[in-house]
Amino acid sequence: MIQVKGVRKSFGKNEVLKGVDLNVKKGEVVVILGPSGSGKTTLLRCVNFLEIADDGDLTIGDLSVRFKHATKKEILRVRRRTAMVFQNYNLFNNKNAIENVMEGLVTARKVPAADAYATAKKELDKVGLSDKYDAYPSQLSGGQQQRVAIARAVSLNPEVILFDEPTSALDPELVGEVLAVMRAVAREGITMIVVTHEMSFAHDIADHVVFMDAGVIVEEGTPKEIFTNPREARTKQFLDRILLKYDYSI
Amino acid sequence: MGKLFDVALVFEYMPVILSRFPVTLLIVSTSIIGGTLLGFLIALVRLYRVPVLNPAVVSYISFIRGTPVIIQMFLVYYGFPLLLLQVGININRWDKLYFVLISYMLNNAAFMAEIIRSAIASVPAGQTEAAHSVGLSGFQTLRRIVLPQAFFTAFPAFGTRVVNTLESTSLAFTLGILDMLGQAQAIGVRTYHLLEGYVVVALVFIAASMLLEKGFAWMERRLIPN
To answer: What ipTM was assigned to the predicted interfaces of this complex?
Structure first.
């Protein structure tokens, strides 16, 4: 369904992705874990061409492209089958909530404005923002902004939504509302690739967990396999650190 | 010879000098409009690092910023006709005003280019990335997301530039343009009352620039959300 094969990416001399393969089935929720600098975010950004990978292939449904040789048209086609939720929300600052959701529908997909408005309303209602249609990003809390961003992504009805650390920039008390919305999205059967440090989300919602380190996939499996019985020492070490399983005994 | 400074003359000269104000307005408006359009193109050349053109406009901008307006005006007035004569075009009979308009437009193009470029560059990269992620093309992103935000950033600097241009137009009289200062000069030569004319010109400039500043401040409040 979504297949990434042999993706490589360097920034200068620093090789961030060293040949990564990833397969995601339709309707699956894949969570990518890993320490910072392991290449998780770069992998996501390569999938919708926010970074141009140096090598590798991408297949989304019946659309196959080589990262290196993708034309502008192909890039646009890939982007119209994907949507992204960013760490810093990245709502359009010059547009209010409903316009943020409508923008991609009307301008990119040529959906009639009235239909786009109805869709936008429906999606904002679903994320619990029925009273914020006219609010500008500067008038919304981080959690509300991220919920608008999720509504914006879902409204495009993409084949996959890429979540790039969607709760990392939030105040702790706002994380819950965003995770709840993400759970609802997962329940709708939308394909999701999620980079996150929220272990509870990975544990409860993911169908498949991928652990990356130093630009390669170290280990992958079901949440149960990864969390209760990691095979690789690096995975175990990372999970212990994140889940605070320190041993303070003297 | 009479008094050294006669207040009555200030009132007498006022209407005569004020009748030349449209010349000043013409220089300001054409150079701002033309300069903004040309400056926008130059800004795009710089932002997209268009090969060959980019280094050319970089030197152009540093030349304009590094030389006084009056020198630029003389170069255009005396240099352009010579340059064009090389390719067989004779513009020696052109009205002087055209050379002034061209000089001020070229001057403003460089400053506007920098205002527009820095305003566009100040829009966070995340805005462009989000636009791309929802499927907007490069041009759609620029038109619908980046430029509207850049506009608000550029607006105050744009207003300052307009006021600066207004003041600097007074140099046009050095080419013999009969603007307000040229008129004051002409009166002074005839009547030996130079100072009264200059006071009138100063008063008109103060009033005009205050009006412009207030106007821009008002527009800023009206236009910019939040």
So the answer is: 0.92
